[in-house]
Amino acid sequence: MYTITTSVEIAAPPGVVRDKFLDFAALPTYSPSGFIRHISSVIDKPPTHLQAGDRLNCTVNYGKTHFTPIVQANTPALFSWVGSIPGIFTGEHRFSFGSIDADQPGKPYRTRLVHEERFTGLLSFLMGQGMLANAAGWRENTRQGNLRIDFTSSPSKHSKPAAHRTWMRIAGSQAGVHSSMACFFLGNLRVTYLRGIGEKVADSSNSGRRIDAETMAEITPLIPDRSYGLHSILYSKDRKSSVSFVMTGEYVKDQPAGFSNRIQRIAIVGAGGTVGRPITEELLRTGQHSVTALTRIGSTSQVPSGVQSIAVDYDDEASLVRALQGHDCLIISLSVQTPRDTQPKLLQAASQAGIRHVMPNVWGCDVMHPPLADSGLNWGGFRELVAGIEAKGMGWTALICGFWYEHSLVLGPSAFGFDLPAKKLILNDDGNTKINISTLAQCGRAVSTLLSLPVLPEDEQDDQLTLSRWRNKPVYISSFLLSQRDMLASWLRVTGETADSWTIEQESSQGRYERGLELMKKGDHAGLVLAMYSRVFFPNGDGNHEQRRGLDNDLLRLPTEDLDEHTRQAKAMSDRGYNYMTNRN
After folding, report:
1. Are 357 and 424 found together in one domain?
2. Buried (b) or exposed (e) across 425-452, using 16+ Cβ within 10 A?
3. What would the pLDDT profile of 432-469 be if each residue is shown by its tens digit?
4. Looking at the chain, which terminus has fewer C-beta neighbours within 10 angstroms, N or C?
């Protein structure tokens, strides 16, 4: 057996890396004209649900080769498939996601992503390091330098053990030769750009030179996400030049004169809303920010004192641009009643106004988790949304916080299942599924802390926490990991009521979810609430982003909260007649 093994350490939990890797639909966008063109399941099944024995449809070799490998394993720690050319060789691709302990207290867990290619069969020796490296000219081109890669070969009777870091040519006539190996990187990225055979145009990884604007303009369309994402080796359309990515970061010392390393002026849409108000109040509390509320002309929403308010027409781009000019960041918090085209209009105006960073209207469940993103609800547009933000040259951060606790507790039986005035609770399944939930106050603190950080580290020695850590990626927080029965227990403690005074029923989360989808088809807004909440309560861990992703609470120094205190706040909201659609007081 001959083996090619590559590995990379990634500053993200294994669940994050695995989910990104299994987003097969997005893989071709990382390398639009590259070696891998298409991967999908032969049967209609999301990648996360693939099992041993399932077949994949793969198109590689720049669209010239089609094959149908068979999945061997799909677990949290390993994904593998086997493909073959009958009688010549069989190749197994193994991708393992290993957890690495944090190197410093307070740092998140890391992942070691290992990609292993194992070859057996008559001509398998061609796939080993010796023959393949010589045939492709990799050793000869090590001296010319095109691309950094980890390349190791396992012991065998045909090759000696080896483990070294080398520079390899994958350009010109040799473009794409086994370019799938060592092709996955996650984190802040630095570009090494190469043109032609052996001609090094710009190499920011060791020359210290900046990549010129013309070169950057040429390669930018090939890079979907220069800060966070799963990337393969990228090729230009003529396959004579290549772009590779190496883990690194950007620093203040590299920025042009006049660069400000702080987010100071913030515009917010929805400053008087459910989550917008606590965010605005916390931003004002820091004393570091000036906050401008953009309100719809004719709106009666009350914004917190200390906020400058500008009435705008969302259909008038020029007025939006004028209102946003001079601001560093735009926060968008829209109600479910807002027309769908409002956010795109705001983002277009933000780009025209020179906004640097956006927190889009994504507040809640883990939209990065494919089973939720593909569940037929409104989470599926997230990828297109953030791709549009990046295409406009802005950065983004989404707050993944789970459902808002107080709001959801009093929202009605379609949400957490509670009908508080009637003392009735409808449990999803047995009511013991735990999901991540955040209080409105915690959401406000998280956003305020995030936007109070320096934007970039000063230089390579600066290890302070910066906003760049979450540029073009979500920040994950949570106040509590709760089941519906946990919520009921807190309510009983706060009110002094007994369980006997409540009517408790059970329904399947699947059934409630399907019923919600049917109501949505009929235009009933209550169906969206029912489908969203019941879907997150599926007893498969989809609502537990803490286990899957890890939390950023400690990094942001968010406090531990008292569940019963926030249940009291929910009770006070209920006593005031809180209603999301008509009365949010």
Report:
1. no
2. bbbbbebebbbbbbbbbbbbbbbbbbbb
3. 999 999 999 999 999 999 999 999 999 878 889 999 99
4. C
- Co-location of 38 and 172 in the same domain: yes
- Three-state secondary-structure class, residue 269: strand
- Cα(327)–Cα(348) distance, integer angstroms: 15
Q: What pLDDT sits at residue 59? A: 78
- Does residue 44 sit in the same domain as residue 168? yes
Strands 357-359, 363-364: pairing is unpaired
Mean pLDDT taken over the chain = 75
Given pLDDT bands bounded at 50, 70 and 90, which one contains residue 104? low
Is 333 within a domain?
yes
Q: How many domains does the chain have?
A: 3
In a domain, 111, yes or no: yes
Query: Does 476 reside within a domain?
Result: yes
E strands, 77-188, in order: 78-85, 89-100, 110-120, 147-153, 162-168
Q: Output the furthest CA–CA distance in the chain (Å, rounded).
A: 80
The predicted model scores a pTM of 0.62
Structural domain boundaries, residue 348: 261-361
Query: Cβ-count burial of 167 within 10 angstroms (0-12 exposed, 13-18 middle, 19+ buried)?
Result: middle
Would you tell me how many other CB atoms lie within 10 Å of the CB of residue 208?
Answer: 7
Burial environment of residue 418 by CB neighbours within 10 A (0 to 12, 13 to 18, 19 or more): buried
Both 356 and 404 in a single domain? Answer: no
Residue 80 shares a structural domain with residue 126: yes
Per-residue CA distances from 291 to 270, 303, 308, 327 (Å): 12, 11, 7, 9
**8 contact partners, CB below 8 Å, separation of at least 6:** 112, 113, 150, 182, 184, 185, 186, 247
Q: Which of 361, 382, 406 is the last residue of a domain?
A: 361
CB 456 within 8 A of CB 395: no
What distance in Å separates the CA atoms of residue 98 and residue 105, rounded to the nearest whole number? 19
Q: Does the residue 322 lie in any domain?
A: yes
Give the total residue count for the chain: 585
